[in-house]
Request: fold
Amino acid sequence: MRHTDVTLDNCLKCSDCNAACPVMTAHPRYPGPKHLGPELEKLRREGLPCDSEWLEYCLGCERCDMACPNQVNVAELIARAKAAHKKPLRRRLRDWLLARPGLLGQVISLAPAVANRVLALGVVRRLMSLTAGIAAERSFPAYARVKLAGVHGRSRGAERVVFFQGCSMRYNEQALGRDCIALLAENGIETEMSEAGCCGYPALANGDPAEARRRVRANLELLYQAAENGTPIVTACTSCGQMLKTGFTLLLGDDPELAAKARVVESAVRDLGEFLIERADQGHLSLRFGDCGHLGRLAYHSPCHQATQGLSRPWFHLLRMVPGIEIEDLNAGCCGMAGTFGFKQEKYPVSLSIGQRLFQAIAQAAPRQVVSECPTCRMQITHGSGVPSVHPATLLVMAYEQRKVVDGGGGGARLAS
Amino acid sequence: MGRQTFDLVVVGAGLAGLAATATAVAASGGARVALVHAGLGTFVYGAGGVADLGGVAADHPAVRDFRALVDAAGVPYDGDLGQSQLLPTILGTLLPVNLAPRSLWNGRVRSGTRAAVVGIAGLSAFDADFVAERLNRLACGCCYQARRIELPRQDGLPHSVLELANRFDRDPAFRQTLAEQLRRVAADYDVVLIPAILGQWSDAGQMAELETAVGCPVAEMATLPPSVAGLRLSNRLLAHLRGQGVDIFGGYPVTALEVENARCRGVHVATPGHARHFAASAVILASGPHSANLLPGWSGDQDSRRRPLDHQGRFLADNLYLAGALADPEARHGGNGRAIVGGHGAALAAFEREDDHATH
Ligand code: SF4
Ligand code: SF4
Reply:
């Protein structure tokens, strides 16, 4: 079973993991999960030197884990090695910053208008690429000052969820946050916006376990009470969801008291799509959707961290309940962005090369918009394919509003931007 | 605990589980089917050839349905169940096989043919000289000659079958170079035999394109793990089933079956955070011999509808069925044929059962 300490003898060297690894398709020198995971772990446990720069190239997509027939926790072994990996100063400084999207967001949102304009300047981006190793080709998401907090949709509901926003929603996508609130309100659920900060995944992915531990430690206290009371903790970001379901135990599991709390919180976490599809399953999802034929052809991309939660593709099914929606499941593998990975100058070409299969599938499907729940997948999709992308919650809210238009009940039809 | 409801849950994504899933989708018309697996079966160890059918008739509907499935998934099989033929292996031996994916079937022994066994410089996983020499010693009526081609190396690195397969999938220039190199060799032969490297995702159309460019049939031979031919079969079948609406939950094992009053209510899956419960009207267990521990009280026997029986000869649950190596633990040969027939039979039994319920 994954996320427990399997014996390394479980590995039968079948290479299923290597076959599934997106980086192996794009970089000829990447040694692959079999080597970086179970093979090097043997040496690490013997205390032998076996650090490798390639550890930085692991996306943490966990496709290797999903493919392994013998339940070896390959990606976790790699993540542990990443934590011990030594980087040169320049990359260390940059990754220190990328490990802290919350800090970045807090600073920038002090003066978002200025920061957005500065970050969009070509000269600034070239400067960042020269000094900080951030790919100049990437554009930064726009930051906003407004924060979503408090309880919403109270008049409607007996049921309540605690909503974990994540950095992307908190600093860049407040509109999506409002859509999620509206979606839940439509279903008679009130939403309490949690004060919890970064989930800690970016820190883990950048080989900074100390920072990751600080984040999960703080979040544990903020989320524990709600979880203990049986309130679902819902997130619309798949990587936050993956982290919230596994990271507390991974990073705090050594302390028995914290480990018990960690399990309580982890078991309360739901991906928003998972939460809604289970309600649909029990007949508790509002089906008051209006016809959305005007959206035109859509294509769905499922993020790696959706599958790693053992969820299949709830959002795809939810959208297919909307009359008039025409949506294709692209099923074309990893987008290559992997959170902060695609921002790193030296990793940028690999990132785009991994996404090639997905970009081709998008070109073939020729959709008006690509739908995906992960914020950085969406960045990569629009960057690599030129097609706009949208979170499925936004479309679902639109479908509810469309019905209201038809019913004459106020609320204008909105078009996805 | 998370909960979702399905008409059928199939556990295991080997050939048995995939055949069961496909049969269920075709037989049920719109049933909600979940495929739960904790890894990709034994595909990396072979190529999916069917050697015998474990004693069932050659015109069995399972085989007809399976061929329709692989056709639709873009990995068509060739061959004739009534008659086995010999396929060369990378150990220089000949293996009797009745049905195999087309790219492997192309290599079958046909008397009087001249075959080039083509090695790739820098790929140690395949020794063309060794294969040709051993095959010639078997005097099967074909003439084998070892040849060698050069393919551009990435960063000067040695090749691996996975690296070549990934490039075949992704790089049109690589496919063209491969075709040109093989074409130069092919001029003197009826068929070229190469190690299985023709893509993890490629379909019959891409294979046909390659053969047109080469000018003669191109035959793959399964290598030591990972067998690209097996991976391709697994990848394309899973993608096809997903396209058919099947929900695939990969990577986490089923930890328990929920059985109550001789009825299986569903399965528990050890997903992160919280285990998920899939409620089901029927469950097919096709996840290999290790899954026997999910069946407390099982005698090892099954009834004619593939339901596991206890020591008193009663079924453990009236809607629980077995397929694959779990159902056939002793079968050492013809595993793939048995898997296909078993998966098919279990799916039909599952839906027959539901029909019974509907009519009563
Ligand atoms: S898939 Fe699992 S068993 Fe196979 S080589 Fe990778 S880690 Fe080892
Ligand atoms: S986590 Fe993803 S990128 Fe990293 S080794 Fe595994 S499959 Fe490759």
In short: The pocket of iron/sulfur cluster (ligand 1) is lined by residues A 11-17, 34, 37-38, 67-68, 70, 72, 74 (CB under 6 Å).
